[in-house]
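Hi C.,

You asked whether I'd gotten around to modeling the 110-residue construct. I have! Everything is below, sequence then structure, no commentary in between.
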Amino acid sequence: MTASDQIFAFIKKNGSGTRPEMEKALGLCERTVDSGIRKLERLGYIKRAGMTAKEWRKSPAIIFVLADVAPDLKLVGDCRGRPRLAAHVAADQPNDSLIDAMAAFFGRAA
C-alpha cells in the first residue's frame, strides 16, 4: 500500500487529519506524508478544511478532509504520476477526420 493510499485510508477512517497526526499514526516521515498529501490534493481526493487551534509554542497544522467527490480508495493506487490531460489521451487515438483534412490539404488521397 503506497503512502498516498495510507493517507487516504486514514482520512476516510477518521474523517479528517493533520500532517503530524498522519506521521505519528502511519509511522511515515514528514517528507513522505507531505508528498502523499500533495499528490492527493492535486488529484482532487482530499482538500484543506482549516487549521488547528494554535497551542502553546506550537504552530497550527492544516486539517485535511476528503474532497466532496472523493472516489474509492482503490483508485488512488491506480494513479501513478501526473494525471494525463484529456487532450493527451485523445492524441493517442487515431483521428480519421484530421488525417482526411491533411490529405486534402496536401492533395493526396487518404
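If it helps when you're writing up: The chain is about 55% helix and 10% strand.

Thanks,
B.
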